[in-house]
Each structure stands twice: as structure tokens, then as C-alpha cells.
Write a structure and sequence with these properties.
Helix content is about 25%, strand content about 35%. The protein contains 5 helices and 11 strands. It has a 7-stranded mixed beta sheet with strand order 5-4-3-6-9-11-10, sandwiched between helices. Strand 4, helix 3 and strand 5 (about 100-105) form a beta-alpha-beta unit. The longest helix is centred in the last third of the chain and has 14 residues, at about 135-150.
């Protein structure tokens, strides 16, 4: 298919459609974020990725699918994106994964409040473009909303381009901030509420 409808991409591992950000590839930053997550323990358990979480700016669902495939202690995940097409693709890519996981898909612009509270973790690769220009305010709003949505000791794992100086906004909103990895033009952060 060459039209704009939902179609198989990445050797049929995902469904996506033209117009969604990075629709037919795995974003380099998202791949680095996944590579730098702590490995699951026995039976896929994790001290971090368990309980209730969210994927802020989920796109077609790459990060969510990787999390739900790796970690077995996740009980609920909320996938949020401002692009309804991305959310539809995310649903197709994640709703049939194994496990008793409550899945919720929210069509929402995360520069406004998410309405979520008491989450155990959030994962994200926030957008930084509005048209052709770089706009740090989008990532800043994602970080602030993540801090509001997480419970005490909840964790944010995020990736950002090196040139985006998110350290100060992370430090303003989180108790502890770690730069987990830096390379290939990206930084991976772990921030604890």
C-alpha cells in the first residue's frame, strides 16, 4: 500500500500510517532509551517498571510495546498522543499483547494537564518541533505534566536531543535526576519524583 491508510511497517512488527511522526521507522532516540533501560529480573520483574504507568507522546506505540513485552509487573498503561492517527496505530500495536494489563488510550495535547495521578512510572520521547522550528516549551510542558502525574518516588525515563537543555527543568520538578546515557546526539534521563 502506498496510500495514507494504516499499513504494516518494520517487517510487519508494527502498524502505522503516513503522517504520524517517524511512521515507518524506529526513532533513534526511542531505540536508545529502550537500550538504556534496566534489564528485567527473573520472570520479567522490575523495581521500576511495575504497577501503573504512561507513555507520554506514544506515537505508534514503539515504547509501550517494548515495555509491555519486557516487564511483567505492569498492571496498567495509559498511552497519550495529540495525533489521533498515532493513537489508533498504538492501540493496534499494543492491545493484543499478553498479560492482564489495563490499557487506556488518551487523545490529548500534553502541553495541557494529563489528568493522571499517582503513576509509578512514565516513559517518553517528547517532541521538540512545531513546524520547522525547535520548540523546547513542548518538552518542558511534558516534563512538568509528568512530575504532576507521578506519585512520590515515581520515575520518569526520557530521551532528548543533546542540544535541548532539559536538565534545569528536570531538577526543578524532580528530587533526583540522573543522566543515564549520552551519545549519538541524545541524552537518556532518569528522574525520580
Amino acid at each position: 500500500l502506498k496510500d495514507g491508510s494504516i499499513q504494516d511497517v518494520l517487517n510487519g512488527e508494527y502498524k502505522s500510517q503516513p503522517g504520524i511522526f517517524g511512521w515507518n521507522k524506529i526513532d533513534k532516540g526511542s531505540a536508545l532509551l529502550i537500550e538504556n533501560l534496566p534489564p528485567p529480573g527473573p520472570q520479567g520483574q522490575s523495581k521500576i517498571f511495575k504497577g501503573r504507568g504512561a507513555d507520554f507522546g506514544c506515537g505508534y506505540g514503539y515504547l509501550t510495546k517494548e515495555l509491555l513485552t519486557r516487564y511483567k509487573g505492569i498492571t496498567a498503561i495509559t498511552c497519550i498522543d495529540a495525533d489521533h492517527r498515532a493513537l489508533d496505530a498504538c492501540r493496534l500495536n499494543t492491545e493484543n499483547l499478553e498479560g492482564e494489563i489495563k490499557r487506556d488510550y488518551k487523545w490529548l495535547d500534553l502541553t495541557t494537564q494529563s489528568g493522571l495521578k499517582n503513576l509509578d512510572f512514565i516513559i517518553m520521547n517528547p517532541p521538540f518541533h512545531e513546524g520547522k522550528s525547535t520548540d523546547q516549551s513542548i518538552g518542558k510542558a511534558f516534563i512538568e505534566n509528568a512530575a504532576t502525574a507521578l506519585k512520590k518516588h515515581g520515575e520518569l525515563w526520557m530521551v532528548a536531543n543533546n542540544h535541548l537543555g532539559y536538565e534545569s527543568i528536570l531538577e526543578e520538578n524532580f528530587f533526583k535526576v540522573e543522566n543515564i546515557h549520552e551519545g549519538q546526539g541524545f541524552k537518556v534521563f532518569r528522574a525520580i519524583r
